[in-house]
Amino acid sequence: MSDQRHVISRKDYKEPDFFVEKVELVFDLEREVTNVKSRLFIHANPARGTGVDDEVFLHGEDMKLVSVSINERRLASGDFTVDQEGLRFTAPREAFIAEIETQISPANNTRLEGLYVSQSAFCTQCEAEGFRRITYFPDRPDVMATFKVTINADKSSCPVLLSNGNLIDSGDLDGGRHFAVWEDPFPKPSYLFALVAGDLACVEDSFKTVSGRDVALRIFVEHGNEDRCDYAMDSLKRSMKWDEDVYGLEYDLDLFNIVAVSDFNMGAMENKSLNVFNAKYILAKPDTATDMDFELIESIVAHEYFHNWSGNRVTCRDWFQLSLKEGLTVFRDQEFSADQRSRPVQRIKDVAQLRARQFPEDGGPLAHPVRPDSYMEINNFYTATVYEKGAELIRMMHTLLGPDGYRKGIDLYFDRHDGQAVTCDDFAKAMEDANDIDFTQLKLWYSQAGTPKLWWEGDYDADAKQYRITLTQKTDPTPGQSDKKPLHMPVSIGLLGADGNDIAAKTVELTEATQEFVFDGVTEKPVVSFNRGFSAPVNVMTDQPDAELVFLMGNDSDAFNRWEAGQKYATRLILSAISNFEENDGNADAALNDVAVAVDAFIGAMQATLLNDGLDKAFRADALVLPGEEFISEQRKPANPDAIHQVRNALRKRIGVALMDDFENTYHQNASNAAFTPDALSAGQRALRATALGYLVASGEARFADLASDQYKASDNMTDQMAALSVLNHLDHPGRADALADFENRFAKDGVVLDKWFALQAMSSRDDTLARVKDLMGHPAFTMRNPNKVRSLIGAFAVGNPRHFHAKDGSGYEFYTDRLIELDDINPQVAARLCAPLGKWAKYDDDRADMMKAALQRILAKEDISRDLYEIASKSAAA
Ligand code: ZN
Questions:
Q1: Residue 2 confidence (pLDDT)
Q2: Annotated catalytic, 85?
Q3: Domain count along the chain
C-alpha cells in the first residue's frame, strides 16, 4: 500500500545521472516466455551532482532477471540489487556497456502495457512507462537513445516482424524460425519503442514528400480486413500533405507503418514510424462504420502522424510536460479536420466535447492543471484537461498571435528544439521570442486548474455612439489550489444591428479581474454575440433574454454562436421545467406547460434553423440536437437524472409533434440512392435526416417507429442503420428485437462492429436494461480482457445511461463497482479510467451521493488495489 501512495512532484525533477546513447535489443518471441537481451551504451551525465552519483538505476517491473554484465563481466548477485521498482548497480566508469537478459510473458500480460499478445499477434505499448516491463532501462523521456532491434520468431505464426526505423537485415533461422533487424536512426525515448510480430495482412500505398522523397505507407491488419483500410490510408496521405502545407513539416523516413490491434488501452500510439492503433480507429467500410467512425479515423490517424514532429522529433522532458505534445497535437488535428471538413461544425464538435468531458473534470475532485504538479500514476493523467484544455491553450496562442505569428513561433520551436526533450515553458518561450511578446500571464493556463467564469455587462451610449462592455472573470478553488489569479484570454465579440448584420466585431484581450472595452461608431443599440468561436474556453455566466437568443440563432454571422444561442435557450428551458418537475408531481409535460410561451418561441427558432437552406446540413443537424443529459446534469445541483431524462424527452416530443410535417419532408428530401461516400457533405445530409427521424419517433406516432424499422432493413450503410437502431433502441417496437438480432448475426465474428451492439443495449432507457447488461456479460463475444468490450458494455452503461446508472435503488452503482473491482486485477489502467463517473457524487442528492461514496470506499478496501485505481478512487472519495 505504501508505494501506492507515493506521490511524484514536478518540482522534484532532476536531470538523469546517466544517459543511454544506443540500445541493442534481441527478442526471442514466445507467447509464454519471451527472452529479451539488451545491450546499453551508457555514459554519465557530465552535469550530474556528486555523492551517490556512481549508482546506476534502471527501471524494471514484473520481469525475471536472468543476468547482468558490465563491460562483458557478469555481475555476481552481491554486485547489484533488484526490487519492485528496478535494478541498481555501481557504474565502473564514465562510459560503459551494460548487458541485461530478462524474461517476460506476453500471453499473461493482461494489463496491455509492455509486450503482450492481441489475437494471434505480439505487440507493445510503452507509453508512458511500459518499456520497464520489457527490460531494465532508464524509462524516462529525457533519456533518448538510438535503437537497434533484432526480432526472432516462429516464421509460420509470425511472418511479419516490425519495429521502429529501417529494416536493415532479415533471414531464416533453424527450427522454422526467422529474424528481422530494425534500426531507428532518430534518438528517441523508450516510450516510443514498438515491436509487432504476427500473421498480418498488409495494405500498401506511397506518398511523395514535398522534397520529392517516396515514402512507403503500410497498414497491417488481421487477414480479411484488407478491404477496410482505404479511409485510414487516405487520411494518412492527407495528413502528410497538410503538415507540409500548413506547418512546413515533412516526413523523415522512407517508410511509415500502422498496425491495427484488437486489444488496446487507448485510441492509438505514435511510436516512431510504427504507429499502433486500436482497430476501431482504422477499420472502416460503408457497411461496417458510421460517419462518426470515419471522422474519428481521420482525426486519430492525423493525430498520431502529427506526433512525428510534435512529440517524437521534439519530445517531453518529463511526464508533467505531457501537454507539450498532446495539447499541441490535438490542436493540430482539430485544425486539420476543420480544413478537411466544415470549420464551424468542427468547432462545435470540439467545444461540445470540451464541455462534456473537460469542464466536469475541471470542476470535480480530479481537477488538475494542464501541466500537473504531482501524480501517483501517470497513466491517470492522459485526461481531457491535458489533451483538450491543452489544445485550447495553444488555440489561444494562435488567436493572440494570428496565423503568421503563430507559424513564426512554431518554426522557431522546431528549429530550436529538434532532437530534444523539452518543457511547456520552452514551447511558450519560442512563441514569445519569435513574436517579441510576453506570455507570462497566459502561461497561468498551464498551472491554474478550474474553468474560469466570465460575466459581461453592456452599456449603450446613443449620443457618443459607443458601446461599453465590462468583463469580469473569476475562477473557483480546485483541490489544492485555493487562490486563483485572473487569466489572460482573447474574447471575440460581435455587435449585431436590428437587421441582423454585424455593426462591429473585435477580439479583446482580457487580463484583469474586471475590465472595460469600448466599441466606437455604434449607431444603434446592438445585440451582443459574446465569445465568438469560443475564443476563450470559459463558462459564460451572463444570461441574455430569450428574444436575443432567438435573434442570435437566426442571424449571428458566427456559426458557432448561432449554435451556442440554441444550446443556451434549450438548457434554460429544460432547467426551468426541471425545477417545476416536483411541483408537477413528476409530470414532465405539465412542467413544460409552465414555460409554454418560451417553449413555443424556442420551437419557432428551431423550425427556422431546420428550414434555412443557407445553412450547412451538418450544422443544422447539430443545432437541432438538445444538450445531452450529462451536460444538463452539470448545470445545477443536485442533479436529478430521472427528471432530466423525462423533461428532455418531453421537450423532444413537443418539438417532434410541432414540426412533424417539416421533419417528415426533411426526412424524405434527404434520402439518397447514391453509393455511400464518407465525405462531409454526404455525412451532413445523413445526419440531418437522422435528426429528423429521431424527432419523428420522439413524437410518439407509431408509424414513425415503423419507419425506423424499415430504414434499418432497407439501408445499405452502417450510418443509416445505426441511426435507425439507436432510436428503436429505447422502444418496445418489434423492429427493435429484429434489428438487434439481425445485427448480432451479421457481425458475430466482427469484434469492432459488434461493440456497437453491446453499447446500444447498455445505453437503452428501457426498464430491463441492467438485467440485459448482466446477461450480455455472458455473451460468447464478451470478455473483460478486451478494453473495447469493457468500454462498450460497462463503460457505456455508466457514461451513456445516466438514468440507469444512477437508479435510485443503487443497483447501477453496485453492478458497476463489482465490475471495477474485477477489472482492476486484469487491467488497472482501464479500471482507473472507468472509475471517474463514481467521483461525481457531489452533483447528486444525498441518497445517491452516499451510495456513490460507499462504492468508492468499497473499491478502496479492495486487497492489492492497483496504484492506478487507488489514485482515482481516493481522490474522488476525498473531495
Ligand atoms: Zn497524442
A1: 42
A2: no
A3: 5
